[in-house]
UniProtKB/TrEMBL annotation:
It holds the Pfam family GMC_oxred_N. It comes from Neoroseomonas eburnea. Belongs to the GMC oxidoreductase family. Residues 252-266 form the Glucose-methanol-choline oxidoreductase N-terminal domain. FAD binds at V83. GO terms for molecular function: flavin adenine dinucleotide binding; oxidoreductase activity, acting on CH-OH group of donors. Keywords: FAD, Flavoprotein. The keyword Flavoprotein applies. Its cofactor is FAD. This is Choline dehydrogenase.
């Protein structure tokens, strides 16, 4: 195998797949290094299969967070994909754009060229949305579709939204974010279309693209202040994959800072404590971790007609499998989020501060994949723009060892207050007149949790991640930002980062659509630099 390429990309997740396609389309030689293998597992391609693979031993990294007193001293599962497509192969398929102000705030922080008007063309470039409409892309590589099956319960949710004074939107990615809308999915027909299926697989016929999978990246090779390659271990053998033009890290908000620190690029004192020779003192790497903290509420419904709980267990599940195979319909096309409500819970906000999503399934003790016997549904409440900041740091100098992931959820008082307001909004929504006779009562946290203190205690004891980690190798105009606005690592030539870690701040919503757009823009930036 040739071990020298124009571009070496670390990670075949959402961003890496985009870059592999776009850079190889221009004739450059490209290598993609991926720790996992091909996306052959059947559950990857069934939309509802997410419930079975979120913590799959082979398809994910098996990460867990560091226990934190603010969230009950629990070690939380922190799924990250380790397979072609990365987390786009195991996620809930939600395709949601951020609020325009998200990206304008990026630009205001010195990220020139990253405002909403700058990024909108990249959102349009990557998507192929069957519904079309103003500002929507219809010819991109990534298929986006409305729900294949719209449960009747969602219509009642929509009417309940209007009853509490909020709007209902036909397109959740249209001009208005606030209000109710059904989710859009990264799906074509009956199947999930991950970034691997949308971008990487179609480019495999190009002789100038190589995917080096089942290969663990050990460190970035830096020579004379320039990144010249990536050391990997594959099949027990170590080798260096060389880069003529540059190395692009697309290993995600956990993997990218981890690999940088393993390479001696990060807080110098910290990496030295683990026996790694510092190459560049970059204190900002691994800090600023942001994520959405979700608190799940469960409700009992009055009749099984409103819930899918019985449809996802045998023998009825057999009928659903048949429906999926023959018609591309039924619960196997569902996502964990079927609908969403964005709302402002305080006056004077420029964007929603709460997102509530969910669908007509309820899980035993909140365990995804184990439905209750009685009819129910689940709502997930999360703060859109948390103030709490966490970190990714080394636990050991061994690349095969997981890093220390400390999201530090609910460590700011403003976040505590916001999550309580979000739960109260969810309760007001579920108590609206259009849901009378459909929603029987609240199961979790239940009517006994009536005070703000009780609701906060419930949130701290039961909540978890929505799987949206980002911002750990941020770009910015200030010298403390590890990356400049062209995604170049300050202090090392030939090294870029392009994934969710580059966000200065988290968008108000699910992040995969933003990652695809960042990668599309990154491909343009790299091409511009190649042309000089």
């Amino acid at each position: 195998m040739d071990t020298t390429f124009d571009h070496v990309i670390v990670g075949a997740g959402s961003a890496g797949c985009v870059l592999a396609n776009r850079l190889s389309a221009n004739g450059a030689t490209v290598a993609v290094i991926e720790a996992g293998g091909r996306d052959r597992h059947p559950y990857i391609h069934i939309p509802a299969g997410y419930a079975r693979i979120l913590n799959h031993a082979r398809l994910t990294w098996g990460f867990r967070t560091e226990p934190d007193a603010a969230t009950g001293n629990r070690a939380l599962d922190y799924p990250r994909g380790r397979v072609w497509g990365g987390s786009s192969s195991i996620n809930g398929l939600g395709h949601v754009r951020g609020h325009p102000s998200d990206y304008d705030l990026w630009a205001q922080k010195g990220c020139t060229g990253w405002g909403w008007d700058d990024l909108l063309p990249y959102f349009m470039r990557h998507e192929s949305f069957a519904g079309g409409g103003e500002g929507r892309g219809t010819t991109g590589p990534q298929p986006i579709e409305h729900l294949a099956e719209r449960p009747e319960l969602l219509d009642h949710f929509a009417r309940a939204t209007e009853a509490i004074g909020l709007p209902v939107n036909e397109d959740m990615n249209g001009p208005r974010r606030e209000g109710f809308a059904t989710f859009q999915q990264t799906r074509r027909g009956q199947r999930r279309i991950s970034a691997a299926r949308a971008y990487l697989v179609p480019a495999l016929s190009r002789p100038n693209l190589a995917v080096i999978d089942n290969a663990l990246a050990l460190r970035i090779v830096v020579e004379g202040g320039r990144a010249t390659g990536v050391a990997i271990r594959r099949g027990g053998q170590e080798q260096v994959i060389r880069a003529r033009f540059g190395v692009v890290l697309s290993a995600g908000a956990i993997g990218s800072p981890h690999l940088l620190m393993l390479s001696g690029i990060g807080p110098a004192r910290h990496v030295a404590q683990h026996g790694i020779a510092p190459v560049l003192d970059a204190p900002g790497i691994g800090g600023n971790l942001q994520d959405h903290y979700i608190v799940r509420l469960n409700y009992r419904l009055t009749d099984h007609r409103w819930s899918a709980n019985r449809r996802i267990v045998w023998p009825r599940l057999g009928l659903e499998v048949l429906r999926w195979i023959t018609r591309g319909k039924g619960v196997l096309t569902w996502s964990p989020g079927m609908m969403s409500l964005f709302a402002r819970t305080q006056d004077g906000l420029e964007a929603p501060d709460i997102q509530i999503n969910g669908g007509p399934i309820s899980w035993q003790d909140g365990r995804i994949g184990v439905p209750e016997a009685e009819p129910g549904f689940t709502l997930g409440v999360w703060q859109c723009r948390p103030h709490s900041r966490g970190s990714v740091t080394l636990k050991s100098p061994r690349p095969e060892d997981a890093p220390a992931i400390a999201p530090r959820f609910l460590t700011e008082r403003a976040d505590e207050d916001c999550v309580v307001r979000g739960i109260r909004l969810a309760r007001r929504w579920m108590g609206a007149e259009p849901l009378r006779g459909i929603v029987a009562h609240e199961l979790r946290p239940g009517p006994q949790a009536g005070t703000d203190e009780a609701l906060l205690a419930f949130a701290k004891a039961t909540g978890g991640t929505v799987y949206h980690p980002c911002c750990t190798v941020r770009m910015g105009g200030d010298a403390a930002a590890p990356l400049d606005a062209r995604l170049r690592l300050r202090g090392i030539e030939g090294l870029r980062v392009a994934d969710a870690s580059v966000f200065p701040d988290i968008p108000v919503c699910n992040i995969n659509a933003t990652v695809l757009s960042v990668a599309e823009k990154a491909a343009d930036l790299i091409a511009e630099d190649v042309r000089g």
